[in-house]
Protein backbone atom coordinates (compact mmCIF):
# COMPACT_ATOMS: atom_id res chain seq x y z
CA UNK A 1 0.00 0.00 0.00
CA UNK A 2 1.37 3.45 -0.94
CA UNK A 3 2.18 5.92 1.80
CA UNK A 4 0.71 9.42 1.80
CA UNK A 5 2.71 12.65 1.63
CA UNK A 6 1.18 13.77 4.93
CA UNK A 7 2.43 10.65 6.71
CA UNK A 8 5.94 11.14 5.27
CA UNK A 9 5.91 14.79 6.33
CA UNK A 10 4.90 13.89 9.88
CA UNK A 11 7.64 11.29 10.07
CA UNK A 12 10.30 13.71 8.83
CA UNK A 13 9.19 16.40 11.26
CA UNK A 14 9.08 14.07 14.25
CA UNK A 15 12.00 11.71 13.63
CA UNK A 16 14.42 13.08 11.02
CA UNK A 17 17.58 14.81 12.26
CA UNK A 18 19.98 17.22 10.58
CA UNK A 19 22.57 14.44 10.64
CA UNK A 20 20.34 12.35 8.39
CA UNK A 21 20.31 15.14 5.81
CA UNK A 22 24.06 15.68 6.10
CA UNK A 23 24.68 11.98 5.37
CA UNK A 24 22.28 12.11 2.42
CA UNK A 25 23.98 15.15 0.87
CA UNK A 26 27.54 13.98 1.46
CA UNK A 27 26.87 10.47 0.19
CA UNK A 28 25.45 11.95 -3.00
CA UNK A 29 28.48 14.21 -3.44
CA UNK A 30 31.16 11.65 -2.56
CA UNK A 31 29.56 8.37 -3.67
CA UNK A 32 31.29 6.46 -0.90
CA UNK A 33 30.33 5.49 2.66
CA UNK A 34 34.01 5.50 3.68
CA UNK A 35 34.71 9.01 2.37
CA UNK A 36 31.44 10.32 3.76
CA UNK A 37 32.28 8.98 7.22
CA UNK A 38 35.73 10.60 7.08
CA UNK A 39 34.35 13.95 5.88
CA UNK A 40 31.81 14.32 8.71
CA UNK A 41 33.78 12.63 11.50
CA UNK A 42 31.68 9.48 11.86
CA UNK A 43 32.36 5.77 11.61
CA UNK A 44 31.30 3.85 8.52
CA UNK A 45 28.77 1.76 10.52
CA UNK A 46 27.34 5.02 11.89
CA UNK A 47 26.82 6.43 8.38
CA UNK A 48 25.29 3.14 7.21
CA UNK A 49 22.92 3.10 10.16
CA UNK A 50 21.76 6.69 9.60
CA UNK A 51 21.08 5.91 5.96
CA UNK A 52 19.14 2.79 6.91
CA UNK A 53 17.13 4.80 9.44
CA UNK A 54 16.19 7.38 6.80
CA UNK A 55 15.25 4.73 4.23
CA UNK A 56 13.08 2.98 6.82
CA UNK A 57 11.49 6.27 7.80
CA UNK A 58 10.56 7.06 4.18
CA UNK A 59 9.97 3.46 3.12
CA UNK A 60 12.05 3.99 0.00
CA UNK A 61 15.52 3.11 -1.29
CA UNK A 62 17.75 6.17 -1.46
CA UNK A 63 20.95 4.71 -2.94
CA UNK A 64 21.96 1.90 -5.27
CA UNK A 65 24.91 -0.01 -3.79
CA UNK A 66 27.66 -1.21 -6.11
CA UNK A 67 31.26 -2.41 -5.82
CA UNK A 68 32.75 1.10 -6.06
CA UNK A 69 30.31 2.90 -3.78
CA UNK A 70 26.75 4.21 -4.02
CA UNK A 71 24.59 6.03 -6.57
CA UNK A 72 21.51 8.13 -5.63
CA UNK A 73 18.09 6.86 -6.66
CA UNK A 74 15.42 9.13 -8.08
CA UNK A 75 13.81 9.25 -4.64
CA UNK A 76 17.11 10.55 -3.26
CA UNK A 77 17.24 13.20 -5.97
CA UNK A 78 13.71 14.27 -4.97
CA UNK A 79 14.80 14.68 -1.36
CA UNK A 80 18.12 16.45 -2.04
CA UNK A 81 16.86 20.04 -2.62
CA UNK A 82 15.10 20.08 0.74
CA UNK A 83 18.11 18.51 2.50
CA UNK A 84 20.54 21.01 1.00
CA UNK A 85 18.28 23.97 1.77
CA UNK A 86 17.85 22.77 5.34
CA UNK A 87 21.62 22.48 5.87
CA UNK A 88 22.24 25.85 4.21
CA UNK A 89 19.68 27.50 6.46
CA UNK A 90 21.23 25.87 9.51
CA UNK A 91 24.71 27.03 8.50
CA UNK A 92 23.54 30.61 7.82
CA UNK A 93 21.70 30.77 11.14
CA UNK A 94 24.74 29.45 13.00
CA UNK A 95 26.91 32.15 11.43
CA UNK A 96 24.39 34.83 12.32
CA UNK A 97 24.07 33.71 15.94
CA UNK A 98 27.83 33.37 16.34
CA UNK A 99 28.36 36.82 14.87
CA UNK A 100 25.75 38.37 17.14
CA UNK A 101 27.22 36.60 20.18
CA UNK A 102 30.76 37.75 19.51
CA UNK A 103 30.24 41.21 18.05
CA UNK A 104 26.62 42.00 18.77
CA UNK A 105 25.91 43.90 15.55
CA UNK A 106 24.16 41.26 13.46
CA UNK A 107 23.96 40.09 9.87
CA UNK A 108 22.71 41.95 6.78
CA UNK A 109 21.72 39.93 3.71
CA UNK A 110 22.17 41.94 0.51
CA UNK A 111 21.07 40.83 -2.93
CA UNK A 112 22.23 43.06 -5.75
CA UNK A 113 21.98 43.21 -9.52
CA UNK A 114 25.12 43.08 -11.66
CA UNK A 115 24.93 46.86 -12.00
CA UNK A 116 24.41 47.27 -8.26
CA UNK A 117 27.47 45.17 -7.48
CA UNK A 118 29.82 46.74 -10.03
CA UNK A 119 28.48 50.27 -9.80
CA UNK A 120 28.07 50.61 -6.04
CA UNK A 121 28.99 47.71 -3.80
CA UNK A 122 32.52 46.99 -5.06
CA UNK A 123 33.38 50.59 -4.20
CA UNK A 124 31.37 50.95 -1.00
CA UNK A 125 31.73 47.61 0.78
CA UNK A 126 35.45 47.87 1.73
CA UNK A 127 34.77 51.20 3.46
CA UNK A 128 31.52 49.86 4.92
CA UNK A 129 33.31 46.88 6.41
CA UNK A 130 36.02 49.12 7.85
CA UNK A 131 33.44 51.35 9.55
CA UNK A 132 31.23 48.48 10.76
CA UNK A 133 33.52 45.47 11.28
CA UNK A 134 30.95 43.89 13.56
CA UNK A 135 28.26 43.64 10.87
CA UNK A 136 28.48 40.46 8.86
CA UNK A 137 27.51 41.05 5.23
CA UNK A 138 26.08 38.24 3.09
CA UNK A 139 26.19 39.52 -0.51
CA UNK A 140 24.72 37.62 -3.46
CA UNK A 141 24.22 38.59 -7.09
CA UNK A 142 20.53 38.52 -8.02
CA UNK A 143 18.47 40.45 -10.52
CA UNK A 144 15.17 42.12 -9.59
CA UNK A 145 12.90 39.11 -10.05
CA UNK A 146 15.18 37.04 -7.82
CA UNK A 147 15.20 39.82 -5.23
CA UNK A 148 11.40 39.82 -5.24
CA UNK A 149 11.42 36.04 -4.70
CA UNK A 150 13.82 36.49 -1.78
CA UNK A 151 11.50 39.08 -0.25
CA UNK A 152 8.65 36.57 -0.42
CA UNK A 153 10.87 33.95 1.22
CA UNK A 154 12.12 36.33 3.90
CA UNK A 155 15.82 35.85 3.15
CA UNK A 156 16.86 39.38 2.14
CA UNK A 157 17.40 42.61 4.12
CA UNK A 158 18.48 45.00 1.36
CA UNK A 159 18.09 44.87 -2.41
CA UNK A 160 20.34 46.91 -4.72
CA UNK A 161 18.61 47.42 -8.05
CA UNK A 162 16.85 49.83 -10.37
CA UNK A 163 13.43 51.15 -9.44
CA UNK A 164 10.78 48.49 -10.01
CA UNK A 165 7.46 49.32 -11.67
CA UNK A 166 5.89 48.50 -8.31
CA UNK A 167 7.66 47.71 -5.06
CA UNK A 168 6.59 44.64 -3.07
CA UNK A 169 4.12 45.27 -0.27
CA UNK A 170 5.90 46.66 2.77
CA UNK A 171 9.03 47.65 0.81
CA UNK A 172 10.16 50.94 -0.74
CA UNK A 173 12.76 51.98 -3.31
CA UNK A 174 15.20 54.84 -2.68
CA UNK A 175 17.18 56.16 -5.67
CA UNK A 176 20.86 56.76 -4.89
CA UNK A 177 22.97 56.79 -8.01
CA UNK A 178 22.42 58.21 -11.49
CA UNK A 179 23.24 55.99 -14.45
CA UNK A 180 23.44 56.15 -18.23
CA UNK A 181 24.17 53.93 -21.21
CA UNK A 182 27.71 54.15 -22.58
CA UNK A 183 29.55 52.67 -25.55
CA UNK A 184 32.52 50.68 -24.27
CA UNK A 185 35.69 49.74 -26.14
CA UNK A 186 39.32 48.79 -25.69
CA UNK A 187 41.56 51.83 -24.96
CA UNK A 188 43.45 50.98 -28.18
CA UNK A 189 40.29 51.18 -30.33
CA UNK A 190 40.54 53.80 -33.08
CA UNK A 191 37.49 55.67 -31.71
CA UNK A 192 38.65 55.69 -28.07
CA UNK A 193 40.55 58.98 -28.23
CA UNK A 194 38.26 60.83 -30.62
CA UNK A 195 36.64 63.90 -29.02
CA UNK A 196 33.13 63.35 -30.41
CA UNK A 197 31.85 60.22 -32.10
CA UNK A 198 28.72 60.05 -34.25
CA UNK A 199 26.36 57.13 -34.71
CA UNK A 200 27.27 57.12 -38.39
CA UNK A 201 30.81 56.20 -37.36
CA UNK A 202 29.59 53.71 -34.78
CA UNK A 203 27.40 52.00 -37.35
CA UNK A 204 30.53 50.91 -39.24
CA UNK A 205 32.01 49.06 -36.24
CA UNK A 206 31.59 45.49 -34.96
CA UNK A 207 29.47 45.08 -31.81
CA UNK A 208 29.06 42.61 -28.95
CA UNK A 209 25.33 42.59 -28.27
CA UNK A 210 23.69 42.19 -24.89
CA UNK A 211 21.15 39.33 -24.59
CA UNK A 212 17.62 39.76 -25.93
CA UNK A 213 15.31 41.19 -23.27
CA UNK A 214 18.03 43.15 -21.48
CA UNK A 215 17.64 46.92 -21.15
CA UNK A 216 20.93 47.47 -23.00
CA UNK A 217 19.78 45.34 -25.94
CA UNK A 218 16.46 47.18 -26.15
CA UNK A 219 18.25 50.53 -26.07
CA UNK A 220 20.71 49.45 -28.75
CA UNK A 221 17.94 48.21 -31.04
CA UNK A 222 16.08 51.51 -30.57
CA UNK A 223 19.25 53.44 -31.46
CA UNK A 224 19.92 51.30 -34.53
CA UNK A 225 16.38 52.04 -35.72
CA UNK A 226 16.70 55.73 -34.91
CA UNK A 227 19.97 56.07 -36.86
CA UNK A 228 18.93 53.55 -39.53
CA UNK A 229 21.77 51.04 -39.49
CA UNK A 230 22.12 47.28 -39.28
CA UNK A 231 24.96 46.48 -36.88
CA UNK A 232 27.85 44.19 -37.66
CA UNK A 233 28.06 41.73 -34.77
CA UNK A 234 30.65 39.23 -33.55
CA UNK A 235 27.93 36.54 -33.01
CA UNK A 236 28.83 35.98 -29.38
CA UNK A 237 25.91 36.83 -27.06
CA UNK A 238 26.30 36.07 -23.37
CA UNK A 239 25.03 37.07 -19.94
CA UNK A 240 28.47 36.32 -18.48
CA UNK A 241 30.00 39.78 -18.17
CA UNK A 242 33.56 38.47 -17.80
CA UNK A 243 33.22 36.84 -21.24
CA UNK A 244 32.09 40.13 -22.79
CA UNK A 245 34.99 42.00 -21.18
CA UNK A 246 37.49 39.39 -22.39
CA UNK A 247 36.21 39.81 -25.95
CA UNK A 248 36.45 43.60 -25.64
CA UNK A 249 40.02 43.50 -24.36
CA UNK A 250 41.30 41.24 -27.13
CA UNK A 251 39.42 42.55 -30.19
CA UNK A 252 38.42 46.00 -31.57
CA UNK A 253 34.78 45.63 -30.57
CA UNK A 254 32.11 47.92 -29.13
CA UNK A 255 29.25 47.22 -26.74
CA UNK A 256 26.46 49.29 -25.22
CA UNK A 257 26.01 48.83 -21.46
CA UNK A 258 24.95 50.83 -18.39
CA UNK A 259 27.91 52.79 -17.04
CA UNK A 260 27.42 51.13 -13.64
CA UNK A 261 27.95 47.64 -15.06
CA UNK A 262 31.36 48.51 -16.44
CA UNK A 263 32.50 50.90 -13.67
CA UNK A 264 35.01 48.51 -12.08
CA UNK A 265 36.85 47.89 -15.36
CA UNK A 266 36.90 51.61 -16.09
CA UNK A 267 38.49 52.27 -12.71
CA UNK A 268 41.11 49.62 -13.50
CA UNK A 269 41.68 51.28 -16.92
CA UNK A 270 41.11 47.96 -18.67
CA UNK A 271 38.35 49.40 -20.87
CA UNK A 272 37.15 52.87 -21.72
CA UNK A 273 34.15 54.66 -23.22
CA UNK A 274 33.58 56.31 -26.57
CA UNK A 275 32.86 60.05 -26.37
CA UNK A 276 29.32 60.23 -27.73
CA UNK A 277 27.79 63.47 -28.95
CA UNK A 278 24.69 62.74 -26.89
CA UNK A 279 23.96 61.48 -23.41
CA UNK A 280 21.94 58.27 -23.04
CA UNK A 281 20.32 58.49 -19.58
CA UNK A 282 19.13 55.34 -17.82
CA UNK A 283 17.16 54.56 -14.64
CA UNK A 284 19.14 55.21 -11.44
CA UNK A 285 20.35 52.55 -9.05
CA UNK A 286 19.11 52.49 -5.47
CA UNK A 287 18.08 50.46 -2.47
CA UNK A 288 15.02 48.30 -1.97
CA UNK A 289 14.29 48.45 1.77
CA UNK A 290 11.61 47.29 4.20
CA UNK A 291 9.34 50.15 5.24
CA UNK A 292 9.50 49.12 8.90
CA UNK A 293 11.00 46.61 11.33
CA UNK A 294 14.46 46.73 9.72
CA UNK A 295 17.21 45.68 12.12
CA UNK A 296 19.70 48.22 13.46
CA UNK A 297 22.40 46.58 11.35
CA UNK A 298 20.27 46.92 8.20
CA UNK A 299 19.58 50.57 8.98
CA UNK A 300 23.30 51.21 9.54
CA UNK A 301 24.22 49.64 6.19
CA UNK A 302 21.48 51.53 4.31
CA UNK A 303 22.51 54.84 5.90
CA UNK A 304 26.16 54.21 5.04
CA UNK A 305 25.33 53.49 1.38
CA UNK A 306 23.25 56.67 1.18
CA UNK A 307 26.08 58.75 2.65
CA UNK A 308 28.63 57.05 0.40
CA UNK A 309 26.69 58.00 -2.71
CA UNK A 310 26.21 61.57 -1.51
CA UNK A 311 29.91 61.97 -0.75
CA UNK A 312 30.80 60.67 -4.21
CA UNK A 313 28.40 63.10 -5.92
CA UNK A 314 26.16 60.34 -7.21
CA UNK A 315 22.90 61.17 -5.50
CA UNK A 316 20.21 62.09 -8.03
CA UNK A 317 16.54 61.31 -7.84
CA UNK A 318 14.98 59.25 -10.59
CA UNK A 319 13.18 62.37 -11.79
CA UNK A 320 16.14 64.74 -11.95
Distance between the termini: 68 Å
Strand content: 15-25%
CATH topology of the largest domain: D-Maltodextrin-Binding Protein, domain 2
Number of helices: 12
**Per CATH, which architecture of the largest domain?**
3-Layer(aba) Sandwich
- Category from helices, strands and their pairing: alpha/beta
* Overall mean pLDDT: 88
Descriptive overview:
The chain is α/β, with parallel strands linked by helices and 320 residues long. It has two domains: 5-99, Winged helix-like DNA-binding domain superfamily/Winged helix DNA-binding domain (Arc Repressor Mutant, subunit A); 106-320, D-Maltodextrin-Binding Protein, domain 2 (3-Layer(aba) Sandwich), CATH 3.40.190. The protein is 48% helix and 19% strand. The protein is built from twelve helices and eleven strands. It has helices at residues 5-15, 18-30, 33-40, 44-58, 74-102, 114-131, 144-153, 199-202, 215-226, 241-250, 259-267, 296-311; strands at residues 63-66, 69-72, 107-112, 136-141, 158-162, 171-185, 206-207, 232-233, 254-258, 272-273, 281-290. The strands form three sheets. Strands 3, 4, 5, 6, 9, 10 and 11 form a seven-stranded mixed β-sheet that branches. Helix 2 crosses helix 4 (44-58) and helix 3 (33-40) packs across helix 4. It is elongated. The model is unreliable at 315-320 (pLDDT under 50).
Amino acid sequence: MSISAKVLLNRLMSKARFRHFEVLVRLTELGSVKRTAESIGMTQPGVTQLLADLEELLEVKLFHRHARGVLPTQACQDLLPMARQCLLGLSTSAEAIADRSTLGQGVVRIKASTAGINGLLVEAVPALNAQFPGIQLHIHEAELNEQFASINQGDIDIGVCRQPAQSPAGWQFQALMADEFVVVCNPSHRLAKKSKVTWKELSQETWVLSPIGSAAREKFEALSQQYKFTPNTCHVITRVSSMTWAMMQQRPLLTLVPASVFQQLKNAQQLTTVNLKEKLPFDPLGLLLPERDASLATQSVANFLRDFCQQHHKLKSSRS
